[in-house]
Write a sequence for this structure.
């Protein structure tokens, strides 16, 4: 037990199954509502993918080992949620953005399929992430967080693949007097 002080317990670094990227913040850290600067990405998985099923088994094993270590029940599925658009399972991976000696944030590694440096993925790009499960305890409970280490962009979604082109809206609109 930890005498009421927060503690953390990590898994070895793992590689996620391929999934669809959502809301990546890897070029500049996310500072939502003034919070701590954070690197993050949400990945939507295919629940029928064998690698996803294997990752869930690893999550269950980690939760059981951590629960035994901390002496508290831990829900392994607490890191999962359902994507609002597809209903498929997704995980948001995060890591605190650390400041380098030069006063700039040290970026996480983002590579392409050939393991060459690339820019952050766009929504819908096929990605894998390197991560660790971290178990935490505090006086208020215990749980698991997925900590982001690196991202691999396996396949880029073609630009404009959503089928919506905002510029076309102006072509189809009736002529009106512009108010500005």
């Amino acid at each position: 037990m930890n005498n009421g002080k927060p503690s953390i317990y990590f898994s070895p670094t793992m590689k996620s199954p391929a999934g669809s990227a959502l809301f990546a913040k890897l070029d500049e850290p996310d500072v939502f509502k003034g919070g701590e600067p954070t690197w993050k990405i949400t990945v939507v998985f295919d629940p029928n993918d064998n690698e996803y099923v294997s990752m869930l088994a690893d999550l269950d094993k980690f939760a059981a080992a951590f629960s035994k270590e901390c002496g508290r029940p831990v829900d392994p599925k607490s890191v999962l949620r359902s994507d609002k658009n597809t209903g498929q399972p997704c995980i948001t991976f995060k890591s605190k953005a650390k400041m380098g000696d030069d006063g700039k944030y040290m970026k996480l590694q983002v590579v392409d399929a050939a393991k060459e440096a690339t820019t952050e993925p766009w929504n819908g790009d096929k990605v894998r992430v390197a991560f660790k499960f971290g178990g935490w305890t505090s006086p208020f409970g215990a749980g698991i967080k997925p900590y982001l280490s690196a991202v691999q962009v396996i396949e880029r979604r073609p630009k404009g693949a959503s089928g919506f082109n905002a510029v076309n809206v102006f072509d189809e609109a009736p002529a009106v007097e512009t108010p500005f």
Remarks:
- The CA atoms of residues 17 and 50 lie 9 Å apart.
- The chain has two helices and nine strands.
- The radius of gyration is 20 Å.
